[in-house]
Amino acid sequence: RSSNAETDDGTPSFVCEICVESRSLYDSFDVKGCSHFNCTSCIVRYIASKLEGNITNISCPQLGCEARLEFEDCRLILPDDVFARWGLALCESALVGHKKFYCPYKDCSSMLIDEGEAIRKSNCPHCRRLFCVQCKVPWHSEFDCSQFQKL
């Protein structure tokens, strides 16, 4: 990676291939196996947009480039919420093939895995509240699950 341009104060610069603005070379983000120049803020927005599209395997933003952005390599540039969202999305994508469901309590909604055990009630490991495993709703004892599922 090289850059022939300099800023007014003599520091090396480059033109971001996303926003097409001249930036200090210190503001570039290196993608392993890639020679494209992108500024850190554009890479952050790019990662966030990919996550919004449920994409976790994120490649260099330049068309045709097969270099991949590594989760851990991006830790220092990403805001905490974006880094956490990417980590959660990676964990969820690793569970392909498992029966996933979410805690029925709206203020929790943690992802859980149905391991196929014949249990009727369980506590969410995150919020610790009881829910009906058969119906995937907050715990009830007033009615039979089979009747509830017919409603």
Automatic annotation (TrEMBL):
Keyword terms, alphabetized: Metal-binding, Repeat, Transferase, Ubl conjugation pathway, Zinc, Zinc-finger
CDD domains, per database record: BRcat_RBR_unk
Output one GO MF annotation.
zinc ion binding
Which SMART domains does UniProt cross-reference here? IBR (SM00647)
- What are the coiled-coil residue ranges? none
Q: In which pathway does it act?
A: Protein modification; protein ubiquitination
Annotated GO biological processes are: protein ubiquitination; ubiquitin-dependent protein catabolic process
Q: Which residues form the RING-type domain?
A: 12-151, 16-61
What does the UniProt record say this protein does? Might act as an E3 ubiquitin-protein ligase, or as part of E3 complex, which accepts ubiquitin from specific E2 ubiquitin-conjugating enzymes and then transfers it to substrates.
The family assignment reads:
Belongs to the RBR family. Ariadne subfamily.
Q: What is this protein called?
A: RBR-type E3 ubiquitin transferase
Phylogenetic lineage: Eukaryota, Viridiplantae, Streptophyta, Embryophyta, Tracheophyta
